[in-house]
Amino acid sequence: MKSIIYITFILSIVTANITITHPNKNSIWVIGAQETVKWELENNFTDLGEVDVLLATDDPRSEGITLALGVPLIAKETTIKVPNFMPSGSGYVLKLVDREEKPWPSENFSLSTTKAVEADSVSIDIEESTNKNAKSNSTQSDNIIPSNDEILNGDYDGRSIENDKQEKSNLNNRDAKNSSSALPKMNRIINSKQAFLIISTVVFICSTF
């Protein structure tokens, strides 16, 4: 009995506890792409043997698909390819199986046909796009030439059609007033010329006698 307890104690010391850090619950792997598996070791040994890398579902009956064989534990990471035939979805688990055939599972993660985009990147892109559009709209508004439809709708230069009509009427009245005030002056000029001609004629007649 003591021998069994001693052997179990020795095995627990030699065997390292493995914690898979990637993939994790936030990971979305792309089907058919190269992905990196990373893990941490609780016990610091120089020779921890090798592990096999399996991809399975969170179903306890799922044996999984082997992605890599004989990966040194001391490496703490390896690159694998996600099989093209895997369906997209959530509830996938990566397993590292040690030399004693003990599986060390990861957190549940997802598979997708497209690469996931970080939320921060999306917000930055949206903000930059919004700023560019606002700047573009501002530049365009400065260079707008009103169309006939805008003029007819009363949107030209922020004035209504009624205001335009009133201004036009005022302009016509001003022109008419200027024209009427010029008539007496023209009449005076014409009368002066007529008087001059009459006087010149009289002088000419008198000079002939």
Briefly, what CATH class of the largest domain? Mainly Beta
Strand content: 25-35%
User: What value does the Rg take, in angstroms?
Assistant: 48 Å
Helix tally equals: 4
Sequence of secondary-structure elements: HEEEEEEEEEHHH
The outline comes out as: rod-shaped
Main sheet characteristics? 6 strands, mixed
CATH overall fold name of the largest domain: Immunoglobulin-like
Uncertain spans: 1-13, 118-126
Counting DSSP E segments of at least 2 residues, the number of strands comes to 9
Could you tell me how far the N terminus lies from the C terminus, measured between alpha carbons in angstroms?
A: 173 Å
Please give the CATH architecture of the largest domain: Sandwich
| Total domains | 2
Which whole number gives the mean pLDDT? 73
Structural class, by secondary structure, is: alpha+beta
Helix content: 40-55%
Report on the structure:
With about 210 residues, this protein is of the alpha+beta class. It folds into two domains: about 1-110, Immunoglobulin-like (Sandwich), CATH 2.60.40.2840; about 150-200. The protein contains four helices and nine strands; from the N terminus they run αβββββββββααα. It has helices at about 1-15, 120-140, 150, 160-209, and strands at about 20, 30, 35-40, 50-55, 65-70, 75-80, 90-95, 105, 110. The strands form two sheets. Strands 2, 4, 5, 7, 8 and 9 form a six-stranded mixed β-sheet that branches. The longest helix is centred in the last third of the chain and has 48 residues, at about 160-209. About 10% of the residues are buried. It comes from Smittium simulii. This is Protein PBN1. Keywords: Signal.
